[in-house]
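Suppose you are handed a protein chain with no further information: no name, no annotation, nothing but its sequence. What can you learn? This example shows the usual starting point.
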Amino acid sequence: MPFSLLKFGLKSDYPFENDPDLPPPSELKRHYDVVIIGGGGHGVATAYYLAKYHGITNVAVLEKGYLGGGNTARNTAVIRSNYMTPQGVKFYAASVKLFQNLSHEFDFNIMYSERGQLTLAHTDATVRAFRQRAEVNKHFGGRTELIGPQEIRELVPTLNMNPAHLPVLAGLWHKDGATARHDAVAWGYAKGATQRGVELHQLTEVTDVDIQNGRVTGVHTNRGNISCGCVVQAVAGNSSLMAAKAGFRMPITTYPLQAMVTQPVKPFLDPLVSSSALHCYVQQTSRGEMVFGGGSDPYPLYNTRSTLELKESLLAHAIEMFPFMANLRLLRQWAGITDMTSDYSPIMGLSPVENYYLDAGWGTWGFKATPICGKTMAELVASGGVVPELIAPFAMSRFDTFKQVNEMGATAASH
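A reasonable first move is to predict its three-dimensional structure. Written in structure tokens, the prediction is:
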């Protein structure tokens, strides 16, 4: 909790009217040094780090909807770094460290809650894979270990240890697992960016991209045309569609990913619990609601609709893990649009178009990468295209050189 929050709470006056979080809408300028397409967490984080740490403030963040209204508002807010590859662990561990201090940096409470994540192993092969994964995590600074059934019972006394006739043999316990309010993260970054001169333009859709001699020179929007020095593409599930406007293809397939939440109940589950064998993960929010997530839909689609088929299969698996939850009432169900690469790692860095930078291919792990993605993309832009070492392995060119970063087994539920 920021120390200034206590001071603010003891004030006799609350200057809400004189200190709005975001400035009122304004007209587009004809030119910006940097245009960021996408006003989700990644877009406003990049703008924030550009302004605060690099002094670049002639920046426009263009969002076709509203701030954080895309995948930022449609995820389940899980934060973790227990990935499989050295490249992935280092990247997401750096993001976790940034998350831990965001409330103080923003002077804005993002409700960060470190709770730990428990991933269940139901087969000997999974136990062997978890043992290797734990060692990779520990080597690069993550707090991850393999634990046995007795320790699992102590962590989650309400868990069925033999769900769907798949006995729990062990678990991957990731102490750094956490959650945060996704909308608070977006608002914190947006507030910090706009206070430093960045312009956030909501309801502003980019309809085309101007390319001259292989270099981006501007964008067309539903509110007029803009010239710019460079463009950062951060549009989550619409990455392939936006790249097509810039004249190139991306190795991405887009799938819906659904989740749902129940009525609130008395707190009983602190860790995040997942099972890739059951294609399901379960967590309880600070308000007591039970959140269920699982695998993506098995077909490509640009749509955020909910389906009965997914609801039935996901809840059946969740009830196998926690049988008494069959008595809970479901409150709502929703979906996001996920860009999946063949190696389950993102695409960051340079594109075939000069000064057109990519932040794409996040699949189901975009929210947890928000701070480090914003920081490294800002470094990339500020340096004029020098790719930071931390994101170099995620270049789109890796698919041409067969240097994939395979994170296929690192998701909380199989996709």
